[in-house]
Request: fold
Amino acid sequence: MVKNMIEVKNLTKEFNGVTAVNHVSFDVKEGEIFGLLGPNGAGKSTTIRVLCTLTRPTEGTATIGGHDIVKDGSKVRELVGLVSEKMIMYDRLTAKENLKFFGKLYNIPNDVLDRRIKEMLELVHMEKWQNKQVGTYSTGMKQRINIIRALLNMPEVLFLDEPTLGLDPQSSTEIREFIRKINQERKITIILTTHMMIEADMLCDRIGIMDYGKIIALDTSHNLKKMVNGGNTFELNISNLNNKLLSLIQSVGSVKSVVRENETRVKVRAEGDGAFDDIVDAIRANNGKIVSINSLEPTLEDVFLHLTGHEVREQVSERVESGFNHMREVRPRIR
Amino acid sequence: MGAKRMVSHSLWIAWKDLLELTRVRMLLVLLVLMPLFMMLMVGYIFPTSGSINHLPVGLVDLDPGNDNSPGHTFVLQLEAINNQTGMMDLSSATSFADIKTKIQNGDIYGGIIIPENFSSSFMAGKQATITIITDQSNPQISQMMQGVLTQTIDQMGVLLAENRVINNTSIGADNSLAIVKPYAVETKGIVPGNPNYFQFVAPGIIAMVVMMSLMTALPRAISHEKEVGTLDGMMAAPVNRLSILLGKTIAQMVRGMIQGVIILVLAVTLFGVTIYGSVPLIFALLLLGVFSFVGLGIVITSFAKNEETAAMMMMTIMFPMMFLSGVFFPIQQMPWFMQDISKVLPLTYATKALRKVMTLGAGIPSIATELAVLIGFGAVMILIAVPVFRRAMTR
Reply:
C-alpha cells in the first residue's frame, strides 16, 4: 500500500467574502502525478498557494509528508518545490545567478549547490545559456530554468501551476516529457494544475476536476470517462454510404445519434452492450460495405461537460461578451 | 531556524537585489545625475545677496545745484562705489513718474530719487533725504535692492560725516570714525570661512536622499516582487519573513549610502562645501537616519497592494516631508503649525544633526537630542511595523 504524501481535509479559502476554495478534501499518493483540472478561476491556484504555505486557509488544513501546513509551515517549505503561474525568476540575473540565489535560500552548501546546478542545467540542455540574463530567453527556455529552480532543493513534492501556459506546442511537449521523467526517475510526487484536458490526460495518474472552488469528481482519467452517459461512440467508414443506410442505422434501437461527417464517414453514438453488433449487423444486412470502424473514447472535455453542464473553455470574459442576460448568470470567479 | 541562517538569507537577498540593480545601466547613471540636478537646482535657484549684481536701477537727480553742490557730489560718489561693487546698472531718469513707467515696463527694478531740496537742506545743516523706489511685484529683489542701496547710502553718509568731523573739529582722522559711528559690528562664525547656500542645503539633501531612497525603494522593491510573482519564490522557501525584509532593507541602505556618498563628493568637489566635522560620524548619522525610516517604509509596504499604490503613498508622504523638515528652508521662517509638524518628522532631526556635524564640526554631545529622537522614532516604528508586515505577508 502506497502511503499518502498529501492529505487535504476540508480546505477552505475565502477572500473578502468570496469563497475561492470550498471545503476541498483529497489525498495524493507518494510518487503520483495528481492533476487539478478546471477552468480559470476554479480555485486550482489558490489550492496550490495554500498547500505551499503562501496563504493561510480560512478553514480546514492539509498535511504534506505528515507535516501540517498551518502549524509546521517551515517544515513543509523544505519539502516542496513550486512552479507557479508567474515565473519565479529575476530577468536581470543570469540563469546561474538565479539558481544560486534560490539554492542559497534552501541552505544548500556551496559545493553541493554548484554541482546540482551544473547537473540540472545539463538535464534541460541549458548549460550554454547559463551566463545569459534570463530576460533574454524565450518563454520555453525560461520555463525550463523555472522548473529546475523548483527542483534545486530535491523536493519530495513538486507543485506545478499551469506549467505549459503560454508555451508553444513544441516547448509544451518538452516540458511535459520532462515532468514525467522527473516523476519516474526521482520519484517526486507532483501536483499539477491545468485547464488543458489533453495535458491532464497525458500526465496525470489521477485527476480532480474543480469547478467553483469544489472538487466535483476525482478518479483516474479512464474511470472519469466512464462516467459520461451515452456509452460508446463509433466512427464508421462505409464506402457506399447513402441516406437509406443512414436512416437504417438511426432505426437501430440502441442508437442515440447519427452524424454524417463526410462522403463516407459517419459518427454513431449508442448505448448498451450489444449496440456495436446491432449496428454492424444492420449495415451488413443492407449491403453496406464497412471499410473501417473506430471506437471513440470520450474525452475529459465530455466528462467536464457532463458534470458541470458547461464547457471547460467557457470563461467569464466570453460569457460577458455574449450578452447582458448571460452576465447575470455568471458567478464571480477568482483565482 | 537559527539567527545565523536568517542573517545569511538576508545577505543573499541583499546581494541579489544589488546585483539586479547593477544590471540597469540607466539607473546607475541616474544615481549620479539625480543628486547632481538636485544640488544645481536648489543651489542656484534660491537667491542670495551675493548673487545679485548689475541690477538695472533708475537715478533721478532733481537737485538744481552745480558741479560742486552736495547733490552732484553724492551722485559721483554713488557711481564710484557702484563701479567697485558692480551691484547696479545705473541709468538716468527724469521723474518719479518716469521710474514708475520703467518699473512697470520691466526695464528697471528700482529707482533712486535725489529731491530738489537735497543740496539746500544739506547746506542749511539739515538732514537731506534720498528716496528709494522699489518694485513691489518682486518682493525678494526689492528687499535685496533696498538693503544694498541703504547700505551704500549709509556708507556714504558715514564718509561725509567723518570729513565734517575732521574739518570742523580738532578731532583727528584716527578718532573721527568713532565719533560718527561709536559701535562697530563684527560677524564671526564658529568655523572659518563664509558659508554659502550649498553649505546649508547639502547636509539636508544628503539626509533626504538617503532616507527617501530607502523609504521609496523598500515598498517598491517588495510590492514589485509581489506583483511579478518572484516574492512567492522566497516565501515558498524555508526563509523567515523577516529575513526577506532585512535583506531588502540592507540592499536599499547600501544603495542609499552610495547615493549619499555621491552627493557628498559632488558637494565638496563641485559646490565648494567644506566638511568641518568627522566623516565617520556623518556616516553613522546617515545610518541612524536610515534606521529611523525603516519602520515607516515597512508599514507602507504592508499597506501597499501594488507598486503603483506604493509609489503614490510615498509621494504623499515625501512632499510635505521635503519642505517641512528644513532641508531647503529654515524651519524658523515657517508658521507655528508647520513648525509643530516639522517637530514630528524624523528627517528634521537627521538634517539638523547632519548640519551641525558637517558645517559646525559638532561632536556627539551636541547632537545628543537628535540622536535620541532618531533612535526612539526608529525603534517605535519598527515595533509597530514588524507585526503589521507579518500579517500582510500571510493573508
